[in-house]
Design a protein that fits this description.
CATH class of the largest domain: Alpha Beta
Oligomer: single chain
Order of helices and strands: HHEEEEEEEHEHEEEHEHEEEEHEHEEH
Strand content: 25-35%
CATH topology of the largest domain: Aminopeptidase
Structural class: alpha+beta
């Protein structure tokens, strides 16, 4: 299975938080030939169902988010330069000088985030990063009317325009690894299991607005016959000159992560369900698949799904990436391949004898 091909195909689809319609369509199209049923909800979440052979086996949801960090047009000045605001947490220092794509109703419009000429930048200015309010995008328009004629208007979504770049040792640099990596794994697991008899019913789910506060995940399991859930997401990795192991212990290339939980604002913000986590760990160890375990920085859909209804047992399996929320996030294709293997092995082992009780 060519995971790189799937990933590259998904990266072409721009869908910042709140503007996920293109990825909703793409994910439904990818899943439809692989599972029994797929539909989208009025909220925007995508729900696919692969029915299992054992009614008593726990039903499991595999969940990746369809949105990505991006921007939205907030104004267009008389000269045709476009002001914008962030959607999600793109890193300010990684925005200036970047290629972007304006996702207009007329199609994609390329642009660049402008930079003050170095010849007149003061030494003090050179040491600072301007706030997002001072940044602007140049689409080559000579005025507001020309920009509007291109289809650019207030409310137009924007994404980074960088293309995926294959590095040495099976590494890939790309925008939107978060969470195109997770969606790639979701599709790959469905493809791997197609035609197999598996005990549990598996829900393949794409959520909206994860980057805006896990909003899609907070409602997606309502009304579904789901006993347990796994968020498939990416997370910050270290092993780079400006990140010490004191801060982040995960490394790209050392395997996917089966997290103990999540860290936010310097404290543990979530501890994942022990039985769901053990189920993933047991599968990895039984198959000899490498994995890492620690607490991740950030939050995933698992945190929201765990609070659904009476509480759905949930955990996260993740793809480590460097340079989070930038246009050059770096991940390992081998880590992604092993993530898919762990999920496939775990699903094959999930039968009527599995208990979700923690004691």
């Amino acid at each position: 299975m060519d995971l790189r091909e799937i990933f590259f195909r998904l990266v072409k689809v721009g869908s910042p938080s709140g503007f996920e319609e293109p990825m909703i369509k793409a994910l439904k199209s990818e899943l439809a030939p692989l599972i029994d049923e797929v539909y989208d909800t009025s909220r925007g979440n995508v729900v696919g169902i692969r029915r299992g052979t054992e009614d008593e086996a726990p039903c499991v949801a595999l969940v990746a988010h369809t949105d990505q960090v991006g921007f939205v047009v907030s104004n267009i000045d008389e000269g045709g330069f476009i002001r914008f605001r962030r959607v999600g947490g793109a890193v300010n220092r990684a925005i200036q000088g970047q290629h972007v794509r304006m996702l207009t109703e007329k199609g994609s419009v390329p642009g660049v985030v402008g930079v003050k000429p170095g010849h007149i930048t003061t030494p003090e200015e050179a040491k600072t990063i301007p706030p997002i309010e001072e940044m602007y995008i140049d689409v080559g328009a000579w005025g507001r009317e020309e920009a509007e004629a291109m289809g650019v208007k207030i409310g137009t979504p924007i994404v980074f325009g960088a293309q995926p770049l294959v590095l040495s040792n099976g590494l890939v640099a790309s925008p939107a690894v978060d969470d195109r990596g997770g969606l790639t794994a979701l599709i790959a697991v469905a493809k791997e299991l197609k035609g197999e008899r598996i005990p549990p019913t598996v829900y393949f789910i794409g959520t909206v607005e994860e980057e805006m506060g896990l909003r899609g995940a907070s409602v997606v399991l309502n009304g579904l016959d789901v006993d347990m859930a796994v968020a498939i997401d990416t997370f910050p990795a270290g092993y780079q000159p400006d990140v010490g192991m004191r801060d982040i212990v995960y490394e790209v290339g050392k395997g996917p992560a089966i997290h103990f939980g999540e860290i936010g604002e310097g404290r543990i913000s979530a501890v994942h369900h022990s039985r769901v986590r053990e189920w993933l760990v047991d599968a990895a160890e039984a198959e000899g698949i490498p994995y890492q375990s620690a607490f991740m920085h950030g939050g995933t859909d698992a945190k929201a799904m765990a609070q659904t209804g009476n509480g759905v047992p949930a955990a996260t399996i993740g793809l480590p990436r460097r340079y989070s929320h930038s246009p050059i996030e770096v991940f390992s294709l081998t880590d992604l391949e092993n993530l898919v293997k762990i999920l496939g092995a775990a699903i094959r082992r999930l039968d009527a004898g599995f208990s979700l009780h923690r004691v």
